[in-house]
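WARN no homologs supplied; continuing
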Amino acid sequence: METESIRIVYMGSPEFAVRPLQMLLEKGFRVVGVITAPDRPAGRGKKIRQSAVKEFLKQQAYDIPVLQPENLKDPVFVKELEDLDPDLQVVVAFRMLPRAVWSIPSLGTINLHASLLPQYRGAAPINHVLINGERETGVTTFLIDEQIDTGNILLQEKTSIGELETAGELHDRLMEQGASLVLETIRQLSAGKLKAKSQEAYLDSKVPLKTAPKIFKEDCRIPWDRPGQEVNNLIRGLSPYPGAFSYLYREGEEGLLCKIFSATFEALSHKDVPGTIYSDGKRRLEVAVKDGVLEILTLQQEGKRKMDARDFLAGFSISSGQCRFS
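OK structure emitted
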């Protein structure tokens, strides 16, 4: 089958799903429909917000049918999908699909995942590879089946992780890398050159299987009593969103919620309680951890803008040894 003639239905909602769709359209692939999340009220004003994918299509004025089903098993939606007559469905950062949906196209339904499957199956692979201190990750395309992220693998591409790289930075790199991999996967599938392999073939008995579950607020509180590198990895893995947080306490005052976005760790011996703050009151803001100190570089006080430590200290008086994070 000629690549240009393949009828593609694209499914995705957040920013990560925009670049692959954009690249498909720019390269002339035949996208006959887009499935994305329903419009939702969001923010303090509860204004109706569209998905990033829908916003992109509107801004670029693409004349492509957009479906926004509440229920993917709804027979009306399934019939609308069948009427689009897709040869292939491409899924990037979307919901789990029922068989009635993923089994429609003759070439199958492929998914882009931001990890080297079978490692880091789940909703938040980018965050978890950083939280766990991995040095390497990548992107994978695979055929969707009954389970989450377990289908036969089509293509993979690896990349190294920078020592100070944050989740936001890695997200943007993998988005570009993943978009290119989606195009290559479609080209090889249409040419009949690609044979899917079971994820069992990618397992290494010496390496434990790690997962990437959804991250909740309670997962984001910083445990200062842990080794410093672990704490710093948590901060990197949650930066800029949803953000690692802690409460800053000054004597006699209630705790002040702060999100911390970047830091550096120095290993050294000390006898202070983890969370103890050291500061010159002008430029340096350091916090004791189990095996050293973490210098806070950027943070955000609740209700304020994100700022570097110097600007924060200019408007917030801290006495070294008399304040703590908890």
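The first helix runs from residue 18 to 26.
OK
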